[in-house]
Amino acid sequence: MLKVDNVKKAFGQTTVLDGVNLTVNPGEVVSILGSSGSGKSTLIRCINGLEKLNAGRITVDDFDVSKPKELAEARKRSATVFQLFNLYPHMTALQNITLAPVEVLKRPKAEVEAEGRALLQSVGLGDRADAYPAQLSGGQRQRVGICRALAMKPRYLLLDEVTSALDPEMTAEVLDILAKLAKSGTTMVFVTHEIEFARQISNRIVFLEKGKLLVDLPTAEFFAADGGLAQPRVAQFLSKMRKD
Amino acid sequence: MRYTEFTPFDLWLLAQGLGVTIGLFLVTSLIGLLLGALWGVIRFYRVPVLTQVITFIAEILKNSPVLVQLFLVFFGFPAFFKLNMTPVNAAIITLSLNTAAFVYVIAVSSIESIGRDQIEAARVFGLTRWQVLRHVIAPQALAFSIGPLTALLVNQLQVTSLISVIGVMDLSKIGANLNLRTLKPFIVWTAVGILYYLSAKLVATLGAKLEKRLRAHSAFRGL
Known about the structure:
A: 244 residues; alpha/beta; Rossmann fold; 6-stranded mixed sheet; 4-stranded antiparallel sheet; 9 helices; B: mainly alpha; MetI-like fold
């Protein structure tokens, strides 16, 4: 279980997360919606230990991310896919994927490489294993980013606006893969602006507004008139996003 | 035969001088590279006190003439601390430290040139600081720094000529001796200059080759 407990985070005077509570159970797909600056990305960065919390607690399978010793264990259980891919530019697609499993999980290189190739194959990049990130398109890079995360066999997959930097065609490439993952029971925390897609794959949808968790409802209820849409801010957000 | 004429033995003397110059260059460059890189790593880990001490020493070494540093090491310290100092040792100490100071600057700036985002990614995937340095930062920082390092080493090769002043029998000192004996400065200094030029060219060529290999991953070849 991934548990976010009354988390507060401020950068200087700016409060970004203001008492967020969230629980993600294994097998669930939870989408986090909210306008820019609502704290979605910061929440992900708190879960994977990139930001220090000002208050509250985050545990990944009972490992507290605020404690350096437990953070290492927590990080083995979650894997992040980044908005801007954050691939290692000096390594090939395959090397990007195998680095952490070999160095962190101490798994045999040959085995990890075979798995890495299979992962690349599964996202349609079987023939680009030896390409460097600079030689790949945005959509291809993000697919490598997803493979890199999956190679860690994470219990929780954290996705931070993974399609925001992609054009619609490349977005479709990436979303196809995520849909398959959701179907196969991968636990995902999915920060996104793709509302329709979130609706299709999520069990639950969470709405963040100015660092507070405004709504946390099962998907169907979130989009129901007497559920999430009853919140004026949510209704406003959804209508605006759909017009675009 | 008059004493002002050149003899075949002069060529041997020049070769010896070149050997001393190149030998000292290689030794001091190696020490300087290792020491400068080590300082860079210490700064990367933000080791308290040590980082400030290193930055201070590097500042002094960068911002004072090598000749003054050489005199201080060869004349100043031995007099003050009652030590014995040979010209060669003074040359090795001074040139190594001076190279290290500039290598340190290059190391720091190339480490800082690596995008924060990839370092964050590596940390999130559970790599330790050392693993991040070794697998993500160092290979890219090295590729990035080869250009400035080559320029630095080419310069340091010329700087070795200063050690002739304290009596090391390097290429410049041999040149000075030959000049005094033959009284043919144009020929002597042209020959010496060509030898320096060829050595420097060799360093630059090797550096360029290495850079090309280390940068294989960036397909960009300029506009």
